[in-house]
Every structure is written in C-alpha cells, then in structure tokens.
Amino acid sequence: MNPEKAKNILGRMRQLEIRTRRLVNDTLAGQYHSVFKGRGMDFDEVREYVPGDEVRTIDWNVTARSGHPFVKKFTEERELTILLLVDVSASGNFGSAANSKRELAAEIASVLAFSAIRNSDKVGLILYTDRVEEYIPPKKGRRHVLRVVREILFHQPRGRGTDTVKALDFANHILHRRAIAFLISDFQSSDDPDQALENLRRAMRQTNRRHDLVALHIQDAREKSLPDVGVLAIEDAETDEVVELDTADPKIRARFEAEVNERTQRLVRGFRAEAIDTLELDTAVPYLPTLQRFFKNRERRH
Hints:
alpha/beta; about 25% strand; six-stranded mixed sheet
C-alpha cells in the first residue's frame, strides 16, 4: 500500500472513531448497558445457609459432607460477546446520499463496537458476500475495534452476491457461548425471493435460538422509487444484469415502487414471525434516533 493511500485510510478511520466514540460517550453508553446485560449467572462460591436463603440454591453435596446446610453463591455473568455480521456484497456500494450503504453499515458497526468495549464486552466480526470473506474472533480493546472498523470499510470482497444463510450457519458453528449477533445487510439477493426468504427465516430462527439476533436492514431511498427521467438502464450490482425501464410512464414507476414495498414488507413480516428485533435504516436519514428508539423499546420489553 502506498503511503498516500495509507494516510487516507488512517484519516478516514480517525474521523469515524472520533464521531462514533463521542456519540457513544455522550448519548448511547448508558442505554447500551441497560439493554445488553449479562445473560446468566456464574458460580462463585458456597457459604453456610442463613434463614431467608432460597432452598433451591442449597448445595446438597457440600451439605451432605459437612452435616450443615450450604448454599451456592452466584455472580452475574457481566461480560458479553458481540458479533457483527456485515454484508459487504456489491449492492452495498450503492448510495444516493452522502454515504453508501456499506459506509452506513461501517458507522453503525463502529457505534456498536465502541459501545461494547466501553462496557468491557468482546467484539467479533464476520464479513460476508456469497461466501464468508473474513472472520475476526471476539476480543476486547480499542486497537481490536479499530481493526474491525478498518476491515468493514476497506476489505476488498472476492464475491459479489449475497448469502446471508451461509454467514449465519458459520456464526452458529464458531460461537460456542451465547452472543449478541448484529446482522447488518440490505438483504438484497438475486435468488428467487420466496425461496430466499424461507431459507433466511430458517437460518435466523436457528441463530436466534442459540444467540440474541438483531437485524439491521439498510436501505437507500433511490432504490425504493424511480425518478421520471425517461428510459433508464438499471444494473444489478451482484449479477451485472441490465434492465431498461421507461420511467416516464407513471404505471411503471408505480409498479416498481409497489414491488419494492411488497418485498420489504415480506422481509419485515418474516423478522416479526421469528421474533427478531429489527432496525430499519436509510442512508439519507440520521440513524441516532432509530438506534435510541430501539434501545428504549428493547429495555421496556426486557
């Protein structure tokens, strides 16, 4: 890598770190802590029973050996593992606003990662396209998080398509303890929509049973509706297929919008059916209010 390119990468990462760390410290740290608490209890020690202790905490083995009742003492399992599953397929390079979908994904992932390390949690990363591109095992620390953010921003994918099922199956295989898994994607696929959604629901159901799965659906407004600009060639970023549409025809524009909306609604209904928390994010809309609402709603439910 030439020095100029390295300097640009470092500068961009530094800007992102400053922006997201300030956001975490000023706004989100407390909300993250209250929402993502330890999910279990670790055994600490045994002590003699005192009146008022719960009978179900009695350690019968120690009690039998000593002749006196002893109870198990537990401490909250505070440390969590956060796993970021980030879609880096070709469709993520699109963006009609200031940021592309991939850049928004990187910023959201950065916010979650810095929130996690501020809370002494571990952060891991899976980058995927139609294959698992890279896996960074969960660790703590600022340097580790900066590596995670750098890979999301600057990884050069080998694949172009999207296979979220493969990424979820990989996560289920490598994670042996319960984790919070943030799945960040535009959920676009060139496969048959109905079959793709059914496969996705199956994989998400399995992951959500073993872990705590949260889906972040990243969209761009220009992908939801067509401008009236006459004949427009639309290229599928993942297959290179080109379709020409006469956007001057209001019926074509209306049909395009209806199909996109129906596809989105099917996806959302699938998430709800599997009881998966979901955030809808747009490249042209500030994400902070959406993230805050998510934290508040989740805290209220849990």
